[in-house]
Amino acid sequence: MRLGVVILNYKSYNVTLDCLSKLERLEQLDDIVVVDNNSPNDSYQRLQAAQPGHRWHLLQSGENRGYSAGNNVGIRYLMEHTEDDFIGIVNPDVCFDGEFLRQIRGAFAAHDEYAVLTGVQHRRDGSVSNRSFWPELTRWTTIRSNLWFLNKLANRQTEYNMRFVRETLSQAAGQEIVEVPVVEGCCFFMRRCAWEQIGLLDERMFLFFEEDILAYRVHRKGWRIGVLPQTAFLHDHSTTLKSIYSNLQTDLLLLKSRGKFYRHYLSRGFLDDLAYALSVAVFYLEKCALVPYHWLRGK
Questions:
Q1: How far apart (Å, rounded) are the C-alpha atoms in residues 110 and 5?
Q2: Which of 126, 130, 200, 115 shows the shortest CA–CA distance to 165?
Q3: So what's the pLDDT on residue 162?
């Protein structure tokens, strides 16, 4: 059973090189591919200069078309040039050890019904991340995500709800695997045959909702997604969106991606589209109304 991983780099070559120095020491990993997603700095040249003598392979996307398209470059390479049975995506700021991979490999071998497996995501301080996994998005929760005021009032299972993570893990005490709806895309492994069945990641999405779409496609093919409750990895969050986009840019990018996700995967027709369009109108009205609020908070 061979394992391969894809690491997508964007401007953070130092973080990527640190990650690679740890991963290539893990004998459980058979193939490592790094894709530079057309970084505007000298990341590709730095990685290229550091490559000789190492067992990872370096590619360049040629164009930054987002998380999905960039990772697909690496996934396609592994599928065309290796015999890897499982192909994972690992962010440069993620860290795990050989035992993590042994547990993943063993769980895949014992549970044929699972297409996607990962461990529990931990923060630097050792706490469990509220973004380890989350419920599948519905039409209502997707629309509600556009409405700031309703999101503030809601105290239930929203997209990144710590209560959902805690309750799921507490109910899974003693279990080898717990089935979950969606896992975050920073670190997971997936069967090669499942990648082939779903057609890789949806390249219509530049950023955000890739995991929700992946889960949708995996479940439509009859597979399960699982987390190993006793197995953990660290997500350091040293590469963040804040270093690339402003808060407003992030909000607008989220809105655009949410609309694509809703339109392609949730909408049943005109009335659903109308409901979503109204939520977008409220989103912009709230943004304008909240300008004084944020200005006063800044004071």
A1: 21
A2: 130
A3: 81
**Ramachandran area for residue 133 (φ above 0: left; ψ -120 to 50: alpha; else beta):** beta
Q: Helix 270-289 vs helix 291-298: angle between axes, to the nearest 10 degrees? A: 40
Q: From the centroid of its chain, how far is CA 83?
A: 24
What is the pTM assigned to this prediction?
0.90
Express each pLDDT in 173-183 by its tens digit: 889 999 999 99
Per DSSP, 128 falls in state: B
Find the DSSP H helices in the chain.
13-23, 43-50, 67-81, 98-110, 139-144, 148-153, 162-171, 192-198, 210-220, 247-261, 270-289, 291-298
Using N-to-C axis directions, what is the helix angle for 43-50 and 13-23, rounded to 10°? 30
The percentage of residues in the chain with a pLDDT greater than 70, rounded to a whole number, is: 90
If you ran DSSP here, which 8-state letter would residue 43 be given?
H
Residue 299, pLDDT score: 42
- Residue 197 or residue 1, greater confidence: 197
Dihedral angle over CA of 179, 185, 191, 197, nearest 10: 100
Q: H-helix or E-strand containing 120?
A: strand 114-122
Half-sphere exposure of 134 toward its Cβ, with a 13 Å CA cutoff? Answer: 20
pLDDT of residue 252: 87
